[in-house]
Amino acid sequence: MIVAFSVTPLGVGEDVGEYVADAVRVVRESGLPNRTDAMFTSIEGEWDEVMDVVRRAVAAVEARAPRVSLVLKADIRPGVTDGLTSKVETVERHLAQ
């Protein structure tokens, strides 16, 4: 499964990069395939391991912020691996034609 999620601290002002970095650090230390862009962090793995990482990423932000917003989107597709790379490669292949 691939999960794209965004953790946003609320009540800490406009500059939230430091808080978001705490969440991304948890994801990167998990060892699961992941990518971060300007809006979301995507992570790939089995249901329990991915959701555990999301929970810990939220907890990292929650430890420093009075309120946290979580947006999550999941692509649950059994048997598919390396979806983070293969989905993008497919789109790029079509764009190159």
From TrEMBL:
Entries under SUPFAM superfamilies matching the protein: MTH1187/YkoF-like
Domain spans labelled Thiamine-binding protein: 3-92
InterPro entries cross-referenced by the UniProt entry: MTH1187/YkoF-like, Thiamine_BP, UPF0045_domain
Pfam families found in the cross-reference section: Thiamine_BP (PF01910)
Signal peptide: none
Domain of life: Bacteria
Family: Belongs to the UPF0045 family.
Protein name: UPF0045 protein
Taxonomic path: Bacteria, Bacillati, Actinomycetota, Actinomycetes, Kitasatosporales
